[in-house]
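User: what does the whole thing look like in 3D?
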Amino acid sequence: MEKVVNLAKRRGFAFQSSEIYGGLASCWDYGPVGVELKRNVKEAWWRDMVLTRSDIVGIDCAILMHPRVWEASGHIAGFTDPLVDCKVSKQRFRADQLFWAAVVVDGKTVGHVSALESDATEAELQNGAEELKRKKAIQGKLEPVVAKDFTQAAPEEIPLIPSPATGEPGSLTPPRSFNMMFQTYVGALRDDTAVAYLRPETAQGIFINFKNVLDTGRVKVPFGIAQVGKAFRNEINPRNFTFRSREFEQMEIEYFIAPDADWQKCHRDWIDAGLAWLESIGIPRALLSEYAHPKEKLSHYSKGTVDIMFKFPFGVQELWGFAARGDFDLTQHQKFSGKSMEYFDEAAKKKYVPHVVEPSVGVDRVLLAALCAAYTEDEAPDEKGKLEKRVVLRLSPRLAPVKVAVLPLVKNKPELVAVAEKLHAALQRRYVSFYDQSGAIGRRYRRQDEIGTPWCVTIDFDTLANGTFTLRDRDSMKQERIDEKALFALLDEKLC
Amino acid sequence: MEKVVNLAKRRGFAFQSSEIYGGLASCWDYGPVGVELKRNVKEAWWRDMVLTRSDIVGIDCAILMHPRVWEASGHIAGFTDPLVDCKVSKQRFRADQLFWAAVVVDGKTVGHVSALESDATEAELQNGAEELKRKKAIQGKLEPVVAKDFTQAAPEEIPLIPSPATGEPGSLTPPRSFNMMFQTYVGALRDDTAVAYLRPETAQGIFINFKNVLDTGRVKVPFGIAQVGKAFRNEINPRNFTFRSREFEQMEIEYFIAPDADWQKCHRDWIDAGLAWLESIGIPRALLSEYAHPKEKLSHYSKGTVDIMFKFPFGVQELWGFAARGDFDLTQHQKFSGKSMEYFDEAAKKKYVPHVVEPSVGVDRVLLAALCAAYTEDEAPDEKGKLEKRVVLRLSPRLAPVKVAVLPLVKNKPELVAVAEKLHAALQRRYVSFYDQSGAIGRRYRRQDEIGTPWCVTIDFDTLANGTFTLRDRDSMKQERIDEKALFALLDEKLC
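Assistant: Here's the predicted 3D structure for the full assembly of 992 residues, as C-alpha cells:
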C-alpha cells in the first residue's frame, strides 16, 4: 500500500487536502494525473450505466438539501456512530473500534486491558494482559484474552476498562450516538429553522426527484435513475488513504421495479452487472468477492444487501453495495412530504409505489482499487541494456489518464519535431495525447509507464522515409512499426 | 425568461432542489436532460482549456479545506455582505438592496419611505412618498424622491427609515457584516478548533496546490492550473433562476506568469479566448459585452478585472470574470503556511513568486446563457400541414444533450425496428443517441426540437430498399437522404 501511496503522491495522482497547512484530516486533492483518472472512472460508469442503456436516466442534485429529507430518510435519527470520550486525554474513539478484554488468572479477573482496532488488536491485548500480570506480580495461569468491542461493555464494566490514551481506567464515558452528517446554516439566521446538512449520500436526491423524472423523463417501470456526486460523512476514524474519507464521490442508481416483480433476480442481475463492469475497467475478477449481509443485521425494511468486496493491500473491503430497499424510501417521502409517490402502470392497469434495488459505489474507492490492481513492478533494460526495476501501472486503456504519448526521438531535429507535433494534434481531436520531447527515450517510456499510458509512439528517421513510427506497448514493452491509419484503428478499437 | 424556466421544468432540464418539501431556497437540481447539458458544458470547457492545451493541467480539490486557507485568502475577514435586521418582523435584508428616500415637500423633509431593490424601486418610492403626503394631509409641492441604498444612511437617519416589512420606522438596525461562507464542524468536537468552511470559490484550492503541481506536473511558467467544481455562498438574496444560487459550480484557471511578463497582454489574450470559446459553444457574440471594473473599486492587489457580460432576459449580467491578481494569493499562502511559493525560472536563472491571471466562469451561468440564447419560437407544419408554433432550442451540437435521435417511421414493422435499433447501437458507441418509436413522427421531431437535438434520423421503407434514411435538421427542418457512412462523417465533423 505504501508503494501505491508514494507513487500517487510522486506522480501527481493525489495529495492530502490543504497539505501546506498541515492537512485537513481525511480529505484528498487529486493532482493533474489523478483528476484525469477520476474523470475516466466517472465517464466510463456514466457511459455504461446511463448513456448506453435505454432504461436509465441521470440527474444531478444539489448537495444542500431540505432538512426534512433527512428526517424522512431516517438519517437524523439513525445515521450515527457510537462514540466514547476519554475525560482525561479529551480524545474520542468509535466504540466499535475500541477493544478491551478482562485479564483472567486462574479463573479470576485481575484487571482489564484495551487497544484500538488494528491488524494486531488481539496480540496487543494479550501482551497487555501479560504485562499487567507481571506488574501486579500475580502468580498463576493467564487465560487467553477474549476481545470485545466497547459497545459490548456492561455499565459496571465501563469504569474498569483503561483508556487507550492513558492506560488508566476510570476516564472512559459510556458510548453515545454521534450524528455523522455535517451541519450548516442556510440564510442569514443561525437557528433551528436555518439548519441544513451536507448530503451523506446521493441516493435521497434521486428519491425526492422521482416524480419530476416520471413527469419529464419518458420512463416506464422498470427503470433507474443514476447520480454521480459528492457526499460527506463526518467519520471519526477515517483511514486507509482515500478509502474512507470525509468527503467522497458516489455513483448511485435507484432501480425502480414493480412491487410484485422478482426482486431477487433484479438484485442478482445488478451484482453481476457490477462485477462485469469492474472487470471491464481492468479490475481482475480474482481480487473481487461477494459478501451477503446477514439477515439479522439488515434494517427492518431491507430485503437483502450484498457487497462486492475488493482485496485491497490493507484487507478485503467493501467496494460496491447492492441493497434491495423495498418501497421504504419512496413511502417515507410520500408520508413526510404529503406528495404521492405512486406510479400508474399502464400495462398492469394499476397504481403502486415502486420497490427499489440500489447499486451504490464510490468513485474514490473504484479509483483506489484500480490503482492497487494496476500497480506492478517488473524489470526493464536501461539505456545500456542493464535490467533495472520498472514501476508500471497496468491500467485499462479506458481509465488511463493519458491514452498515447507522442515522442520525437530527438528534440533538435525540426523535421522530427514537426511530424510529431502534427500527429499529436491529430490524436488530440479524439484522445488524450501527451507530447514529450525531453530526456532519453527510455526515461520517457518509464515516465509514461508510471502513469499507466498504454501506448507510446516514437517518431524517428524512418518515419521521415516511410511514414511509419514505433508503437511501444506498455505491458509487453514490445515495439512494432505502425502507420497513422493503423494507430487510429487501434485506438478506436480499444477505446470506443 | 419565464418561457425558458417553464421549458426547463417541463422537459427536465432543472427543478428546484427539494421541491416536494417546498424547496430549499436557491439550490437547483438538474434533471435527465439538464444533467447531460451540464456535462457537455464542463466537458467542452475541459477539452478546450486543459486537454488540448499543453500549458494547462487540471486538479480536483476537496470542498472542505483547512480554515487557515480562508484566513490567508482574506475570505474570513472580507467575504461579507452588509446586513440589516428588522427587529419587529425578524426579517433580514442586504443593506445594498434596501432603498430609501426622504419625502420632501416644499424643501422640508416630512418623512421617509423605503423599498427593496426591484425593477420598480424608484416608482415604489415615489408612490410611497405621495401616499405619505396624502395620509399626513400635507399641502405643498412634493419633490421627486432621490433613492439611496441603506449603506448610505447616516446613523441619525437610520431610526427614521421605515422597515420594508412593516412600513414603520424604528425597527431597522445599522448594517453589519455577514460572512457568506457556510460554516461547519469537522470531527467529533464542536468548538473553534473544528471549524471548517465550504469553499466559496475553487481558486484557493489551486493556489495551495501550486507546489504540488510544480513538483509533479512537469510544468514551466507560463502555465495554468484548472479546476471544475462546486462552490458555496450563503447569499442573502439569491435570484434569477440558476443565475445566482447558493450552491453552484465553477470552472476556474489560475494562469501563472513571470512578475516582469506583459500581464496586460496575457489578460487580454484570456478575455479573447473566453469570447471565442463562448462563441464556439453557440453563444452569439452580439449578446456578449465587456465590462472593465473601475480602478477605484478594485482590491488593493488587483491590477485589473474585466467581465464578459451576457444579455440575459433579466438584464446584462456577469458571465465570466478575468482578474489580474498579481502575486497576492501565492504570497499570502507563503506567509500563512511558512512554505515557499517560489519558482525557479531556468531560462531567466532566477527565483520568483509568479503573478497570476484568473479566468473564472460558472457552469450554471454558461448553461443558463446557452439556454437563453438557444430558446427560439418559430412555426412548423403539423400533421395536416397547418402551421403551428414550434419551440426549438438551437443549442450548438457540442452542448446538445442528445446528438441524434433514431426514429423508425412506425413501430409495428419489425424490419424497420430492427434496422433502427442496429443503427442506434452503432451510434451509441461514440455519440449520445436516443431511440424513440412512439407517436406520430411530427410529434417525435417536436420533442427533440424542444431539447435541442440537432439531428433526427428516420428509418422508413426506402431504408430497407437502399440503405438510406431521412436526416432531418433541427434548425432548417430540411430533410435529406443519407446513408450510414455519411451520417458518421457528419457527426464526426460537427462533434470532434
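In plain terms: DSSP finds 14 helices and 27 strands in chain A. The radius of gyration of chain A is 28 Å.
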